[in-house]
């Protein structure tokens, strides 16, 4: 099992970017939250803060209790994307980046002549020195090298912060046996339960299981992929498919009203429509979700004749918003998701005067998109978004780097629908978007 892959995982990335930008924060406990509110949760923490019990998901008020004097910052995603781009450029001074795995992870494929332990160790140290010189000393990384990217990802997690671990024939598979099942990428709570139900309670037992046994546990090809990854094989995956486009927001305190939630949803929907067109799709479904201060959730959706027109989507949204329950606690967060995609190349235009799905406004939408990309987001918006434009931070999803000029408002997607929910809504009768009455 020769070394073929290197994964670079940046330590406490958002907090490290803030400490690099602001020298006065270095060697101090720092946490980053999506909004400046005590009721939201930390999305990143420096290692000084982690040592005091702060982790991703810790509420801001709890973080203050656990670590008096902690510096709590509102996220600045544009800065993190800028550092991400600089880190790619720095790494590529040493070796080409084969794939960006997330905002704080990247994978490099080793050329055949570089696959010795000595050469990989030297390369890893060169990458660390180049990052410190070109980007900043606060941007430390844990580097893992292994026969495939999956094992290299595991290696990068074994020694943090600023670690360097190699997994190859000298220490595999034994180096994996001390791990918990949940330490393996792709094994979550549900899969762990299925593995234990099949009598596989440890990584050693998982490794010893047959390929056929893992296929049965996973219910198909993914079990075989796990079996092959554990043995160091390079596993090719089918190209990812875009199934949904959505945005969700935790509202700042001043927008936790019905009017504030409505304006924010309008803004998020308009950005989702812009992303839909940019990706080259038409949508046939819209999902809307709300979460209240009581943590109670409500959602609804509709399916309709495929469209990518903002006005048509606004009309569907108006119908869905009218279904919301009244007289509940303050709205804490909101989300919209477009689904049921048709590639633009497969879209069939509608007959003018019979059904209108917004095709006649394609040129208008293209012009508005061009203006917003050229002059800045929210330069031109439909009126429903007014009242929420002053609060429009970009949010970074776990495995997708946002286009700063194109989007805003994405969080971890807590209000995005599950596959089961979408399947339920797809079974509903389809309407035409233009049948939705215009709202005031």
Present the secondary structure layout.
Blueprint: E1 5-10, H1 13-21, E2 30-33, E3 44-45, H2 47-50, H3 60-66, E4 71-74, H4 77-91, E5 99-102, E6 105-109, H5 117-134, E7 141-146, H6 149-157, E8 164-166, H7 189-197, H8 203-208, H9 211-218, H10 221-230, E9 245-250, H11 258-279, E10 281-292, E11 297-307, H12 310-321, E12 331-343, H13 362-375, H14 419-426
Helix pairs in contact: 1-4, 4-5, 9-10, 11-12
Per the CATH scheme, the topology name of the largest domain is Dna Ligase, domain 1
Tally of distinct domains:
3
What is the rounded Rg? 24 Å
Please give the number of β-strands. Answer: 12
Poorly predicted residue ranges: 407-412, 432-440
Q: Give the class from helix and strand content and strand pairing.
A: alpha+beta
Q: What is the share of helical residues?
A: 25-40%
Beta-strand fraction estimate = 15-25%
What is the second-level CATH architecture of the largest domain?
2-Layer Sandwich
- Chain-averaged pLDDT: 86
Measured between the Cα atoms of the first and last residue, the distance is 65 Å
Shape: globular
Report what the structure shows.
- The protein is α+β, with helices and mostly antiparallel strands and 440 residues long.
- The chain has helices at residues 13-21, 47-50, 60-66, 77-91, 117-134, 149-157, 189-197, 203-208, 211-218, 221-230, 258-279, 310-321, 362-375, 419-426, and strands at 5-10, 30-33, 44-45, 71-74, 99-102, 105-109, 141-146, 164-166, 245-250, 281-292, 297-307, 331-343.
- It folds into 3 domains: 5-9 and 80-230, Alpha-Beta Plaits (2-Layer Sandwich), CATH 3.30.70; 13-77, MutS, DNA mismatch repair protein, domain I, CATH 3.40.1170.60; 245-435, 2-Layer Sandwich (Dna Ligase, domain 1).
- It has 14 helices and 12 strands.
- The protein has a 5-stranded mixed beta sheet with strand order 5-6-1-7-8.
- A hairpin with a 2-residue loop joins strand 5 (99-102) and strand 6 (105-109).
- The longest helix has 22 residues, at 258-279.
